[in-house]
Amino acid sequence: MKKLFIAAAALCAVGHAYAQKTPADYVNPFIGTSNYGTTQPGPLVPQGMVSMSPFNTIPRPEHKVHTDSWCSTPYVWDNKWMIGFTNVNLSGVGCPDLGSLILMPTTGPLEVDFQKYASPLENQVAKAGYYSAKISAYDVLAEMTATTRTSRSRYTFPAGESHILFNIGQGLTTESGGYARIVSDSEIEGFKIMGDFCYGVPQSVIPVYFVVRTSKPAESVQYWKKQPDFSHSAIKDWSSTSNQYKVYTRFKQPIAGDDIGVAFNYSTADGEVIEVAVGVSYVSIENARENLDREQHRKNFDAIYADAVTAWNEVLGVATLEGGTEDQKTQFYTGLYHNWVHPFVLQDANGDYPEMESGRIRRMPQGADRLTMFSGWDVYRLTPFMGALFFPQRQNDMALSMMQMYKESGNLPKFEIAAKEFMTMEGDAALPYMTACWFLGLTKGIDTETLYQAMLKNAAAPAEENRIRGDQSFYAEHHYIPLRTPFDNSVSQAIEYYVADWSLGQMAKALGKTADYEMLNARAMGYRKYFDKNYGLLRPVLPDGTFMPGFNPREGENFKPVNGFHEGSSWNYSFSIPYDIPGLVKLYGSSERFVDSLSACFDKGYFDMGNEPDMGYPYYFSYVKGSEWKTQYYVNQCLERYYGNKPGGLPGNDDAGTMSAWQNLSMMGIYPACPAKAEYVITTPTFDKVTIRLDPKYYKRSELVIEAVNRTPENIYIEKIELDGKPFRGYFISHKQLTDAGRLTIYCTNKPQK
Amino acid sequence: MKKLFIAAAALCAVGHAYAQKTPADYVNPFIGTSNYGTTQPGPLVPQGMVSMSPFNTIPRPEHKVHTDSWCSTPYVWDNKWMIGFTNVNLSGVGCPDLGSLILMPTTGPLEVDFQKYASPLENQVAKAGYYSAKISAYDVLAEMTATTRTSRSRYTFPAGESHILFNIGQGLTTESGGYARIVSDSEIEGFKIMGDFCYGVPQSVIPVYFVVRTSKPAESVQYWKKQPDFSHSAIKDWSSTSNQYKVYTRFKQPIAGDDIGVAFNYSTADGEVIEVAVGVSYVSIENARENLDREQHRKNFDAIYADAVTAWNEVLGVATLEGGTEDQKTQFYTGLYHNWVHPFVLQDANGDYPEMESGRIRRMPQGADRLTMFSGWDVYRLTPFMGALFFPQRQNDMALSMMQMYKESGNLPKFEIAAKEFMTMEGDAALPYMTACWFLGLTKGIDTETLYQAMLKNAAAPAEENRIRGDQSFYAEHHYIPLRTPFDNSVSQAIEYYVADWSLGQMAKALGKTADYEMLNARAMGYRKYFDKNYGLLRPVLPDGTFMPGFNPREGENFKPVNGFHEGSSWNYSFSIPYDIPGLVKLYGSSERFVDSLSACFDKGYFDMGNEPDMGYPYYFSYVKGSEWKTQYYVNQCLERYYGNKPGGLPGNDDAGTMSAWQNLSMMGIYPACPAKAEYVITTPTFDKVTIRLDPKYYKRSELVIEAVNRTPENIYIEKIELDGKPFRGYFISHKQLTDAGRLTIYCTNKPQK
């Protein structure tokens, strides 16, 4: 299959070589579908509630990644056996959820056991808003596209017995239970319960409602359900269905169960096309139907697809690229595309959405969006800056949605999906995220004091009353978190609280709230407690204040459990004090020692490009005068080594676009090395020229241009910098400086400026 | 517990010794709850859609009978651990179904895993329409009563944290899947899918809808659901809920799944009473609610119970007993009570009921009942005669319901529950059942020709078009069924077809349809093919017409699999030619040889009182002049040996009242030894006098009296018989003779009349 893809991509490139390619044409949705990128190739519109994906991560001997291993994506490029196309998905995440409501066309005698009806795919084509493949086992061509809250599939069948399966039982989510009702011979409705993302908050449960409609009335519509397993019981000798899938040939009342589905059965002529529309809602079946009625009213497949392409070109078209290779352009536009997958629209076409936590139905004002999927730990680092540059209005909408969650539940969230808090990963991500938005001017419509108090509540409420920081008593007093139990994430947790509290402290300072600032800043400076001079690294500390004995700074590599750190070793966290690199340098005693140690990360292979904690490392060299060239060197190295126009072209979980954002910002030569500080480190751009059309509601200038002069594969270093044609000193530039000036010109050279 | 029961029964007897006992007072619902009787002790009204039962057949080391063994009842007297009270049940059957919608009061921290919240019972009291017990683990007094389509429970709680659980996941039925919605803090609604009775027709699925309402609003109402088992998956290391019951503390949208439930949570004062009403429907949630609203409107627990007692006295009061012991009276009234459990009312209070097979909603005319639970193989033998004597109108209603099923589905059913055909056991039971009704005058409102054609369709339609007799090609041509596969039930199946076709043949004869009569009768005479003179028994025959080699006539005892016979040995079937005992005697060559062989059944222990095929055996002696005393002897022996006023007081599965009917008819001294022949064998009655109030719509006389003169424990033989005061010759009397005369007097003696 890999070969097939490359051939298809090559053909595609040839076919378009002389045509005018739109930004959407550059998108390659296969990027990130291997190497644990956990993105999916199926269609969606920007921030669509509905996205489709082939589901091929079923347990099979041939599959290395599957749902019985650790698997957080419905699709990996390398797998073979596919059981259908999901309608709701999370992209780039590290835990399984959603990835369900699976449509599958089949032929021949009806088979509903996914392990038995699974098929390989051939001739996969994935574009922005479109996916197609031949389903080998059935000789069916499957094409699909989407609107915000619906999907549309077009199946071309061979002659004979054909079926459209809607599998409600399988999926990524580890929550269970579904309900379905046959409405007519061309429509079913129901819901499936999803949620339990990352297992931290088992009470965070997400019901997803659906309506499925076929273009042709079926000859019969039949439920199926996995039957109980009686292998432990005398009944096993009697029941012919124990642990089997039973097709209900006559039962037409509503059905419910853990593992159910519905089959539409047809006799098809050769080449007969049957289309399927799926409407989804997080509120109700009625709303799922209304979403379908409104968004697909009198539209055929091609019109829906054309609308999807238009929508993608609108959001991707804010950036124009000159120079660079076709692959690099594809990487860039696909990276931007990945940043338009999450958050997604939660409210229905009529404005209904579930209130945070309670699930009660509320209604958004017309034209306003309730955005969801705040994967805090991932997105606070880069997303506000991507938003500021490429989609300020949407970023502001996200800030408004965050405040709405606060109003509804009493707290800014930590990791929210579909109005439920999942508490995933460490820290208190809303604080650096929202302060970044505030400093970047992306909190229009939000009262500053209300915003500040919302954040202060997370930071300052006593632990016992604190839904987000129930563990912060010791931290609040002592400014660090001791190692209490083996493999706890104490240092990682403290680092995230530091970043959060430092961010809020900066806002407190700006607002003249001196006492708050001092309290918060004092906490953030607590990181020094972990610094072990002997290692030049952060080391877990025991409750009595002494260092944990038996410290091995490489323990924790490859996501192995380790004392004090989460998903990494001490090396991956020890420089993650982005708000005080100069302070860290001081702890080292000399700039040289700091730079040597940071360089060791890269040169000795301690660095992990695939996860967030250390992804800022290459940029920290720029905090040491004379070492900026190392930023330029390692950033270039990382882009070349870890990124590419290929399924494995992301270094790890895309994390709701964060890994893609690292790529895009690095390719542009500007990177926000400190969250919540509206400032970029400047490095060597990839393209000769990137032009960003700026939103006039947010900026005086109509565009921002970042130019690279003399950029060649060898010229990876910065020779000099000009801002709006005038010489610019240093390697740091504020967001305001940059966007006010409108033009940043970077002269490149093959000689590092040591 | 056994001891406790006996003590309670004794107390009860003393308490009532000097009061006027009503028939309902005599009912002991514990009869049949041990020794595989599979009756239940909980409350119901006559033919109630709803019946309650403690559910204590969960798998536990202490339980000999439980749902992982073969278990077709929610309750056995001998078990200890109880998980609540079911609201829908089948009584006396041999396969698991229904036995679900389980209410349970508990106290202390909420526990929803049935294995963990199970409790012993103390002080069980069971009466017609009432059951109570102390739930030991929680010190809760649980009382319950019922209306036709609803139940009412009254729980007296101690002080503290209390719960009312509604368990939708557990039950006897092996179908699965439930749905529930929290309507308010005192009401839930939903459905559970049941069916798959006896595993013969997996497509026969029964949805049961419910509404549960509490008298006191709960402080919280919470769902629970058994979570998926991830023991085979990497997720096991992450999920804290794998294979556990999860309580949903915040989720309030509708829930669905294989194993779900709902908890109403309270703080109760000491002695606080909370009542729970459950409405059930086989049509819809709305109808379940309407049933509840209509049948419990403004009625308190005591009023509902009083109505139930009145209803029981109305139907049991048609019989008045004189003589006999208190235990015998209890046995008799409880036997009659068991005959009022099934069939039960299927239509809702508004008349809605599910159409046969399709499940489409139809409506009964006002005042008419659609009765369900036609357990054909069991009930065709005795039930029409019980109906003729004790409840002719209801029996006629059942015949009307059977015709309705025919009109809706195209066939008279074989084994119907809740409008679904389950094809359980052998034969074509509707034919002997309906011809019996016709000969007994219990088919008012049914056109005779329509009825005849309905039956003829079952009997004569070619196998490939025959939903009931898909296997009858060979039989129709050769008049027997050969043994084709090991352990098939070929002889049993043929015997049932013989009885069915003989019955219909009798009706054909009566209607002057001579050709039909001859065809049908010729089939019935095919039994001779199986008669092996060497054994004097029926022996399986191979397709080539020769006897099966290796015949062992005792093989098949104790329900072991055997070639040719179902649930029994050749001994249990070889005399089951009730329509042609004289013919069978001829095959034996001499009456003596026949009587010797039949006697051997009893004397050598081949006879099985616990199942239908041979239950007529004791009466077949009366077909041989001079051997009638053996009927009197063995019937008396069977009544003494297999029946009693105790939990083990039925010889086996009550089979929807059939085993109880054997007892009652035998105790009255009249037994219909040939199905569909409106005639009784006369034997020695148990009571001095049984007076049956006859229904004036069906009989000229207002009562039927059967007297025993000189009946003592020793006088078990008949000396002479008088009909309406005149000498009566012989031991057979037609139903018409008997009811026209109105008085049968049997003089008893201790000397057999040889």
UniProtKB/TrEMBL annotation, chains A, B:
Entry keyword set: Calcium, Signal
Pfam families in the record: Glyco_hydro_92, Glyco_hydro_92N
Required co-factors: Ca(2+)
Domain annotation Glycosyl hydrolase family 92 N-terminal: ranges: 26-281
GO cellular component, one term: cytosol
Domain Glycosyl hydrolase family: 287-746
GO MF annotation list: carbohydrate binding; peptide-N4-(N-acetyl-beta-glucosaminyl)asparagine amidase activity
One BP annotation, GO: glycoprotein catabolic process
Alphabetical list of InterPro entries matching this protein: 6-hairpin_glycosidase_sf, GH-type_carb-bd, GH92_a_mannosidase_put, GH92_N, Glyco_hydro_92, PNGase
Signal keyword on record: yes
Record carries keyword Cytoplasm: no
PANTHER family cross-referenced by the UniProt entry: PEPTIDE N-GLYCANASE PNGASE -RELATED, SECRETED PROTEIN
Subunit structure and binding partners: Monomer.
Protein name: Alpha-1,2-mannosidase
Naturally occurring in which organism (per UniProt): Rikenella microfusus
